Prior knowledge:
Helix content is 1%, strand content 50%. It is mainly β and 682 residues long. The strands form 14 sheets. It has a five-stranded antiparallel β-sheet with strand order 1-6-5-4-3, with no helix packed on it. Strands 51, 52, 53, 54 and 55 form a five-stranded antiparallel β-sheet that branches. A four-stranded antiparallel β-sheet has the order 2-58-57-56.
Amino acid sequence: MVSELTDRPDLRRIWAPNSPLILALTLCLAASAIALAAPIGETRYRLEGVRSYSSAATLSLADGEHLVRCGEIFQRVAIHPYDSPPFGLIEFGLAMSRAVDVEIYDGTPRVLEQEGTLWTPEGDTRVRLSESDLRSWYSMATAGEFLVCGGSTGSFATLRPDRSGDLVIAELVDSLPATSSWHMAGDRYGGFYFEHGGLRSARIDSAGHVELGKTYEARLVSAIESSPALDHLYAAHDDQIVLYRVEEAGALTRVGSLQERDTRGLWRMSVWFDPDRRIDRVAVAYPYDSLFVFEVDESGASSLLLADFIGRGWPQALFLESGRLYYANGFDRAWLLEGPSLELRREMPLDQPFGPLDLSVAPSGDGWAEIGGTPIRPMVVAYGTGTGAGFAAPGRRRLIENGNRIAINDTHVYANRSNDQGPSLLVFERGDSLALVDSVSVSPTFASMPWTIERGLLVTENAVFDLADPAHPELLGEFSDVQRAELQRGATRPFPGSETDLLVVGQTWWYSDSLWFFRISRQGGIEKINSEPRTGGLALDDSRDLLYRSERGDGDPSIAVYDISDPYQPVRIHEQTIVEAGPADRHVQTMTSMDGILHVGLCNGGWPENFRSELVPLWFDGARFVPAGVSLHVPWFSTGTSGQAGYLTMVLGGATALLTYDPPPLPRREECYFGDGWPPSR
């Protein structure tokens, strides 16, 4: 039995306002007020702000003159080539699972999510393609009147609008003799093509039934695109770009080759149809190499229009509706080409970080600090104030050498740095200048525990600093001095019964078979006071003297509760299975306590399963865990969540998000039984 502590309303409802799956929000960075903090579906979570890092790389297709990007964050982006920054965020949403493909179907963008949902931003509706955790979805295409989606293990779904205009499934098949359809393109007649030991064809009949066709050229295919108006299909085989002519639905004839060269690493091409000249323009951007643009007429005759050396990076090229060409090197800059022969060029530097590493919120909630990586060694330290548009905006920035952790208090920002002179703790003054005011040498460390500031003490993975003078931290002690290793994972809270000391519970890097308890004081420094066998996920309740931990280590589907009113003698008082692991090895991935609510991140074990992830709010009533609201489906946890200053911070692979949570009135113990579903609202 799957525990009642997790919820799958998405399996029952496809109308997004009644589903805790995703919230699409409109954001203009110049706006003075934005209604961001609306509840996400039926959940009590609110999305307060999002920062994305994909302007250098992740993009999918054009929606008119805008870019549509997908990943953990869905975005629609306007291009302002003469402004700085050159992009304006029009719309964004936190995906319920990774958005893997976008297709303009029936004039409207459709977003395919890896877990198996098809989202239409216009109208905010959603169709579930499958309920299996053992299946992932990868690509989609327009084939005649149908939209076809492809996934793992020979899975395909065909959809079309009903009389009311809503998308409905015509057929769902999950066992065709085909492998995962990583790439897909369709034709005007109801045929579509995907990679399966070569270029494999299929057709869709009038009822939506999928019939497999033949395989063309049994060689690796890394990208497939079709012409918007001509009967042309372009496929990147392992050593050339091949042009095929569509003879009928799912039937091709090879015409020739646009270019012979190694196409490995190429994963997308872009095709634009010129209605005046009735030709295709085909853009191909090779990793760490060059951009090529070809012109192909109706007969299949081709010529090279443009060749441009890109250099380093993993570039992508995309034609906008007008025929302008946008391409980015996936590294540090992008270009916009226009004119009859794309001869007019505008270069746009990209100073955005390549990806987030850590995020911290000030104790009063009036500021945030973030550290992000770049494709080269320097890291970007960013600081800003406010949420909403203020959180999405770039913020004040400083480049530093290699680092990955950050913390913020009311006056300063703290980050780690490693260079030729050794590791150090950097101190920046909050403000427009983000001035560097101190640098403190520290011992080398190989761990990466998130930092915390509490009771004027900064706790890092290996050291504790006294912030009595916040501009000039003083070292109180190092964990490696008392435990021979730094902390890889840990949590802090005020020490029970003390007005000044801290309790730190952590797992060490080298000796990972135990959980260690430390008392931190200005008088005694770091004192090791206790240990518990076995390690795993952990969280300290911020309102009660309780420790939560995944008792049997990572991958455990259960949570144990410890009474730590006396940290010298913790007492295990409860253990409860939160979710049945099942064939997908579903387990507890993260735990965060905020305002007495434990937010548990559940995730599947991984390949070949999809990474269905959800954030489940729970409350321990003294005897057992009871639900504290509806779970929120989120992208796969890369570094999980943490609770800071009333915010849940979420660091994803290509974005960061700020969420808040409005807990329900907590029920009395005698009302806490699973048969009543969720806690009563009163």
